[in-house]
Design goal:
The chain is of the alpha/beta class and 809 residues long. The protein is built from 33 helices and 26 strands. Strands 4-3-2-5-6-7-26 form a 7-stranded mixed β-sheet, sandwiched between helices.
């Protein structure tokens, strides 16, 4: 059963328009769980039709691997939204639609009939979700941007590649369209949240997703290094903790990570307890980080005696989170992914059978499936306009009551057993939408590691002073249960009876061993939604392996495909699989809550952090599946576009500006803006193909212009001319950015220990259900008494008894 067929013939009805990855992927996420999606393309077709990969390298708009992946399960029509006839066709669809999702630039929306205020006025039932580079309002709302610009504007590229020794090389974009995919995850999550609200109220609304903010909201602890300790972090220098590096083994590359002290001790034992390991320079993880070069010298000879797979399995057997730096071929051959049936065989006309990435999460009740081939250009125009939409999805039993508040998830309560980053990032997004999130910390995992690692306010460690924890736990409540005590587990069971969602990111099987597995909890709350977010998932031969965000980057191919041309695989600066898993987990929870609304059923969700990244690696995976070759590392360059790079600007050694030219009009504009209009007629650069062929010469010309100018002068000059450009932003730049300030993204709430500090806030706005961070992150256990009293009706005396018995803290 899916959210699309909970009642026979009823479906969530989605219209998608725009071009490229973000809107298409947002609509794909909904289509794959049953929504009826109609994709509107311009007469020239979606730009991804021209990006490939293509069989035998022959471009064909009906045979693009990326377009196919993004648009399976959709019907496709053609309409030119810049014409009255095209806008009329759009209106005909929207009259019966539930959701519109698009990424049409802000400057083009009125001309295309996509002004959100006008749309929600004409179609009050409609959810209008817009994705743009800088949001629909603010000083830079009209600025242009593409993927490279997003990675720089959001602060990610400035941190990539991690621990770089090369200040002369530019900030590095991660492989693929990760920023587009991340913004799309927000768009799908919010579209369903707004639709759930509309089911109860009949009121649609406009949802605005800023890609810059979506990226800036997931910079690990880097943003807080500035706002808490005044440090401007970058990709340059060494890791703070060690060992942490990509190593050469006998037959390939392995990502080594052993930052917990017990992991390091087990690794030392694996290495035969060498004398050097006891030297003072390796006494703790911070010292090992400071002396990483020396540590590598000692470890490299030992590492080269191992094959990657043997060392990976042996280390994981010792609970050391090593991971292979996988290629695309290795992913398709991997025994764990095969056992979990991650790849799905799908027949696409003209392409034959493709092995496509499967679901980002495995649902217990909701049906995820690939049903309909990606459409040929305009294939369903006659069908769509010649027939009726399905009936819109309806609430189970007719009505579940109106919302209890003004935000989409008001009235939803989450019991949150997650820790570190991926899980807290998931539940933070639920809290931003109004859910009451009760963060359960345990004596076994208390304090959470993010409470005890830098950055600390003013560099002074202490309770409540950790910026990492305080960023990703805004808006939550905190209780402490000693789950080693049976009575604490009983209290958890009693709390579950009052909750809608339970989350955890323990290793596979831990919740069952604690007495908190789904089979037990659904006896208490039959319609419970529960998600387990682990590194490898709950099934498969590697389910017991230890997983974190950085190893998932290695496993998924992100390291292998990220790097400067001709260079080695590179780390990507941020443990992206963590926030990605968190967002995909939040989306899965939203799907499950909507499923419960439509059917009355709860369910269990099994999420693998590895698989949640792999669904965003389609370009690389299909390069192997369709062509039998590994993609080459391209740095900031693009397979088709030039110029497409981050260029040195005037100022200190680390001032850079990203520039992308995607159309002939933009090329003409750039030539004029840099004072060399004759370049537009230069035979070397006459077409996109010629510019790409002469990319080195073109980059040299652009660098000569940018290197003598301030990065903001470059960006403003080019943006005025209609060319996408933006500085590579540091954490300091983001915290002081007037555009982010004007949009209300930067949040300063009073915290009882650290006072008012700037935090990254909510990367979206919603017109009918405004969202705001409700309060600063909680101190450990600060809400234990209130929650146990309010939900379980325990008296102060009884809570004192439980505290004296060390059941609660």
């Amino acid at each position: 059963m899916s959210v699309g067929d909970a009642v026979a013939g009823d479906r969530v009805r989605v219209v998608e328009c725009g071009s490229g990855v973000s809107a298409a992927y947002a609509a794909k996420l909904m289509a794959d769980v049953g929504a009826d999606v109609v994709k509107i393309e311009s007469p020239e077709g979606d730009v991804t039709r021209r990006r490939g990969p293509f069989p035998d390298d022959r471009p064909d708009p009906e045979a693009s691997g990326l377009f196919t992946y993004l648009n399976i399960n959709k019907r496709g029509i053609v309409a030119d939204l810049t014409t009255p006839g095209g806008r009329q066709r759009l209106d005909e669809l929207l009259a019966d639609a539930d959701v519109l999702v698009h990424n049409v630039p802000v400057t083009d929306r009125v001309a295309c009939g996509l002004d959100p205020e006008a749309l929600t006025a004409r179609f009050p039932q409609l959810v209008v979700t817009s994705i743009s580079m800088f949001g629909a309002q603010g000083p830079r709302a009209h600025w242009k941007g593409y993927e490279l610009v997003a990675s720089n504007a959001g602060g990610w590229a400035f941190l990539s590649p991690g621990a770089s020794p090369s200040p002369e090389l530019p900030p590095l974009k991660p492989f693929g369209a990760q920023c587009n995919f991340h913004a799309a995850g927000y768009a799908a999550f919010l579209s369903l949240a707004a639709f759930r609200h509309r089911l109860r109220t009949g009121v649609g609304q406009a949802v605005d997703v800023s890609e810059q903010e979506a990226v800036a909201a997931m910079l690990e602890m880097n943003f807080m290094h500035w706002t808490y300790a005044g440090r401007e972090t970058s990709r340059l220098g060494a890791r703070a903790l060690g060992p942490w590096f990509i190593a050469d083994c006998a037959d390939g590359k392995l990502f080594t990570l052993a930052v917990e002290e017990e992991q390091w001790q087990r690794l030392v034992a694996m290495m035969g307890t060498p004398e050097w390991a006891s030297e003072e320079v390796f006494q703790d993880r911070l010292a090992r980080g400071q002396n990483m070069d020396v540590l590598r010298l000692f470890m490299d000879d030992w590492l080269r005696t191992w094959n990657v797979d043997d060392l990976y399995r042996t280390a994981q057997g010792e609970r050391i989170p090593f991971a292979p730096v996988n290629t695309m071929r290795q992913m398709y051959e991997n025994e764990h992914l095969r056992d979990r049936r991650f790849f799905v065989a799908f027949e696409q006309p003209g392409l034959g059978t493709l092995q496509l990435p499967g679901a980002p999460s495995k649902y217990g009740r909701t049906t995820w499936s690939l049903r309909r081939p990606a459409p040929r250009l305009g294939e369903h125009t006659a069908e769509v306009f010649g027939g009726a939409w399905p009936t819109s999805a309806r609430l189970h039993g007719g009505q579940l009551g109106r919302p209890t508040g003004s935000r989409p998830l008001d009235g939803i309560r989450v019991l949150d057993f997650t820790a570190v980053w991926a899980g807290p990032f998931c539940t933070q997004n639920l809290a931003h939408l109004g859910a009451e999130v009760i963060r359960v910390e345990t004596t076994a995992r208390s304090p959470c590691v993010t409470r005890v690692i830098p950055p600390f306010a003013d560099d002074e460690p202490g309770p409540g002073r950790a910026g990492y924890y305080n960023q990703y736990n805004q808006g939550k409540r905190s209780i402490v249960l000693n789950l080693r005590e049976p009575e604490a587990v009983t209290l958890a069971h009693q709390l579950v009876a009052h909750c809608d969602v339970v989350t955890d990111n323990f290793a596979a099987g831990v919740m069952d061993r604690l007495g908190l597995g789904y089979d037990r909890l659904r006896e208490i709350k039959p319609d419970l939604v529960q998600i387990s977010m682990s590194g490898y998932g709950q099934t498969g031969p590697f389910r017991g392996f230890l997983g974190y965000g950085p190893p998932a980057s290695a496993l998924s191919g992100l390291f292998a495909l990220t790097g400067y041309p001709g260079g080695e695989p590179a780390e990507i600066g941020v443990s992206y699989p963590d926030p990605n898993a968190g967002l995909m987990g939040a989306y899965a929870i939203m799907v499950a809550l909507l499923h419960r609304d439509l059917t009355g059923e709860g369910q269990y969700i099994d999420q693998s952090q590895w698989e949640a990244v792999l669904v965003h690696m389609a370009e690389g995976l299909l390069e192997w599946d369709m062509r039998g070759r590994e993609p080459e590392r391209q740095g900031n360059h693009d397979p088709l576009l030039a110029p497409h790079e981050t260029y040195k600007s005037a100022g200190d050694d680390d001032k850079w500006v990203s520039i992308v030219v995607a159309t002939e009009e933009e090329w003409q504009a750039l030539a004029g803006a840099i004072g060399q209009p004759e370049l537009a007629a230069d035979e070397r650069f006459a077409t996109a193909e010629r510019r790409k062929a002469n990319e080195a010469a073109l980059d040299a010309i652009v660098t000569a212009w940018t290197s003598g100018r301030d990065r903001w002068e470059v960006a403003e000059t080019l943006q005025r001319a209609g060319v996408a450009a933006f500085p590579s932003m540091s954490n300091k730049d983001l915290a002081e950015d007037p555009h982010l300030t004007a949009r209300g993204f930067l949040v300063q709430l009073e915290h009882p220990v650290v006072g008012r500090r700037i935090h990254a806030g909510i990367p979206w706005t919603m017109s009918a259900t405004p969202c705001a961070v409700q309060h600063a992150a909680p101190l450990t256990g600060v809400d234990t008494d209130e929650i146990l009293g309010r939900l379980l009706d325990l008296s102060p005396a009884r809570i004192s008894e439980l505290r004296a018995a060390q059941v609660v803290y």
